[in-house]
Amino acid sequence: MTENAELTASFTELYGAAPEGIWAAPGRVNLIGEYTDFNDGFVMPLALPHTARAAVARRTDGVLRLHSTDVPGGVVSLRVDELAPHSGHGWAAYPAGVVWALRDAGHPVTGADIQLTSTVPVGAGLSSSAALEVVTALALNDLFALGLSAPELAVLGQRAENAFVGVPCGVMDQMASACCTEGHALYLDTRDLTQRQVPFDLAAHGLQLLVVDTRVKHSLGDGAYAERRAGCEAGARALGIGTLRDLPYEGLDAALDTLAAAGEDESVVRYVRHVVSDNHRVEQVIALLDAGEVRAAGPVLNEGHVSLRDDLRVSCPELDLVVASANAAGALGARMTGGGFGGSAIVLVEEEAADTVAKSVIEAFTSAGFATPGVFPAVPSAGARRLGPAA
């Protein structure tokens, strides 16, 4: 039995009728550009083969029923006209938030039965929540014939996470899940959502991009993410600009002097330095990929990690160990990816060295007394799509 057939069968057993279709949306890993998206900056994610899948059928009675094969517990049953931000519901808040966001925007979603399953690692910084949001939005867009574009679905997913769940994330994760294409990285301007699919065929260059899941679970709802966002906004205000995107890299040193002279908290100075320099690193990597110089992106990844570790201070001992041990074993470059405080790192390696580097990282974790990390190649994959009819 195929995975889709299994999901169809479990939906039918659970809800008493077959779903109208099955949809998928991927997790993502971000190549470069971290904490830049809520500053109107540049990012460069790619979709992973790991997806959230949803079997869905419409309802017309105002009832939303949600179930996940990955979470213990029964069906979560809600009324769509009673959905309210910050009302809890655990994992179900992500798909429920999408229904709320769609209805709040005036779209006639009258209820649904939804069965979810996901292979995106939870808490690994690979956007498992965005995958849930986007797959729900895409399915409802199709079933209710809402006519929304992929970027519009991504923005609705972000609104669900910001306003309903309460995590002040930027739009990168949802845009990556909704818009990435196979074999490409997504160069996204988060100010106007213009995008370019950049060819990222690592195998053709004899390279691999490894994802190392440290198994350290992180939660962006604990205030650390919000504190950094507030610090970035404070820095922009002090500099008299709308967002840190408006500060060119060439003016960074002078701007940092201005902030220090004005008595801004040193954390604000660090955050500004990270965001502006990481925007610059995205532009560097784009230029290298366009020139076919993929290997030269390795040192830029290393610089990005140092900035995340020292200026933004969102790394942790496990992430730092991945970067140090991978580079010591011959990697071309490495950095933490995602929100930090755990989660995953990426490692750019020569294809023939991938196993050796992975083994060295695992051995370093064992020596340090850390849990064994998960290691897998990041294969640039397709964004959200309908997988077909239920059967």
Task: Explain what you see.
This protein has 391 residues and is of the alpha+beta class. Helices cover 41% and strands 21% of the residues. It has eleven helices and 13 strands. The longest helix is centred in the C-terminal third of the chain and has 25 residues, at 266-290. The model has no long low-confidence stretch (mean pLDDT 95).
Short description:
With 391 residues, the protein is of the alpha+beta class. It has 11 helices and 13 strands. A 6-stranded mixed β-sheet has the order 5-4-6-3-1-13, with helices on both faces. A 4-stranded antiparallel β-sheet has the order 10-11-9-12. Strands 2-7-8 form a 3-stranded antiparallel β-sheet, sandwiched between helices.
Stretches where pLDDT falls below 50 for ≥5 residues?
none
Spatial extent as radius of gyration: 21 Å
Helix content: 40-55%
- Cross-sheet strand order for the largest sheet: 5-4-6-3-1-13
From the N-terminal CA to the C-terminal CA, the straight-line distance is: 11 Å
Instruction: Give the overall shape.
Output: globular
Give the count of helical stretches: 11
Beta strand %: 15-25%
Q: Would you tell me the structural class of the helices and strands?
A: alpha+beta
Give the integer mean of the pLDDT values: 95
Number of strands: 13
* Secondary-structure element order, N to C: HEEEEEHEHHHEEEHHHHHEEHEE
Biggest sheet descriptor: 6 strands, mixed
